[in-house]
Amino acid sequence: MERVVTAITPINTSKSRVFINDEFAFILYKGELRRFRVTQGEPLEDAVYERICNEVIPQRAKQRMLNLVTERDRTEYQLREKLQMGEYPESVIDEVVKLAKQHGFINDRRYAENYIYSKKDKKSIREIQMDLRKRGVDPDVIDQMFENQNIVDEEASVLRILEKKYSLNEYPDYSTKQKIFAYFARKGYSFDAISSAISKYLDNKH
Questions:
Q1: Is 70:106 a contact under the CB 8 Å cutoff?
Q2: pLDDT-based confidence at residue 73 (cuts at 50, 70, 90)
């Protein structure tokens, strides 16, 4: 079947979406539209179409991937999400993600380890687990990270936040203690960790 460019809709001043036979095909930059002679209402040669799909778009996706993983560490889910926002075909995204994993540019286990290490003094176990799930880390990987390991010292974390957030020069009344306890409970800290940390904090203060 003949491929006809049925629409070229600008995204911004530099690039546009190209529709072939009334279906979205790919995004091209202004210079690429000229170079490949992609014109609305005109047929697109098979050789040109194949070159765009098999060379231009995959190469651009690889470059985008490199830019993303260079900015900061990302999970597979986060990388896929960013590439999907760029409207790359799923087949291209799959190939680029596979390449990123092969070269160690993304590694969800490494990401989880680094995230836990950076947040263990600031967040509860539950908060960290929820954050990792939101970032697409496999629940089994998350469970393995915490299995039989005292990675997060919740009591020390609560105590550190107490010292930073609160300045209780006088022994707090029941209502104030209740509010403090509720704050940490909402953040997912365990009852024992909160109780012990508050007691130690008050003992040190008074």
A1: no
A2: very high
Long-range CB contacts (within 8 A, 24+) of 167-174: 168/201, 168/202, 168/205, 169/205, 171/202, 171/206, 172/202
What is d(CA 121, CA 157) in angstroms, rounded to the nearest whole number? 5
pLDDT tens profile 114-164: 998 888 878 888 889 999 999 999 999 998 888 755 667 788 888 888 877
Say if CB 6 and CB 21 are below 8 A apart: yes
- How does 162-185 read in b/e, with b if 16+ C-beta sit within 10 Å? beeeeeeeeebeeeeeeebbebbe
pTM of the model: 0.75
What b/e string do you get for 30-61 counting C-beta neighbours within 10 Å, with b at 16 or more?
eebbeebebeeeeebeeebbeebeeebbbebb
Collapsing DSSP to helix, strand or coil, 178 comes out as helix
